[in-house]
Amino acid sequence: MATTEKVLRGQGNRNHVIHISSNGVANATATEIIDLSEVFPLHGKIAVEKIESNIWGFANVSLTWAFSTPEQITVLGQGHQEIDWTGVGGMHPSKTTASGTGDIMLATTATGNDALEESGYNVTLYCKASNSL
């Protein structure tokens, strides 16, 4: 059975941990996983400080900022991966929200294997409200 789950854990009004897990659900087109107006309504800007992931069965999982021309955050490959931008203040979008929402989108790329029940991902994003873009 295919399932997708999103869990949002607030850590005050500036920091959030968002965990997205999916088993057997492909997102060939970008799907919103973080709505800035919902998660950070007072700030409207976000920085991704850290990402932890485990991808299986898909070629990769792509994370992008939602702008009129999507801006890539990163592409996560198969297996376990950790990316940490805390030492540089987090990953910020280079565009302003005037050209889009700045929400975070997720898309998967298939491997050519149609056995989606053997595909899935766990992605955890550590985010903070940001005053700069």
Name the features.
Jelly Rolls, seven-stranded antiparallel sheet, 3% helix, globular, mainly beta, single chain, 133 residues
What do you see in this structure?
The chain has about 130 residues and is mainly beta. The protein has a single domain, classed as Jelly Rolls (Sandwich), CATH 2.60.120. The protein contains 1 helix and 7 strands. Strand 4 and strand 5 form a beta hairpin. The longest helix is centred in the N-terminal third of the chain and has 4 residues. It starts with a strand and ends with a strand.
Task: Draw up the topology in text.
Layout: E1 3-11, E2 15-23, E3 31-34, H1 36-39, E4 46-67, E5 71-84, E6 100-110, E7 120-129
Antiparallel strand pairs: 1-2, 2-7, 3-6, 4-5, 4-6, 4-7
Q: Total strand count, please?
A: 7
The description of the largest β-sheet is: 7 strands, antiparallel
CATH architecture descriptor: Sandwich
Look at the structure and give the mean pLDDT: 79
Strand content: over 45%
Structural class call reads: mainly beta
**Name of the top-level CATH class:** Mainly Beta
Assign a percent range to the helix content. Answer: under 10%
**Molecular shape:** globular
